[in-house]
Amino acid sequence: MKQHWLVRPGTIRLLWIIFLLVLALTVLANLFTEAHAWFRIDGSFAFNAWYGFLSCIGMVLVAKLLGRLLHRKDSYYDRD
Hints:
By secondary structure, this protein is mainly alpha-helical. It has one domain. The protein is built from two helices and no strands.
């Protein structure tokens, strides 16, 4: 059976390379632009990159916490 193109290891590796290249170019573009910061911290180098990364980590942690809090047993919908 033929695998879907998004599941193939070669495609996954290529996508990682493309995503990392885009991230690197975005961070490097920050060297050539002037930040108009409202606060001191949002004018720091690569603020959007590290803020987005930390926000993503926070969302994953909150989702895992909610999953533990709202978890039901596997037999929750079974009738006796």
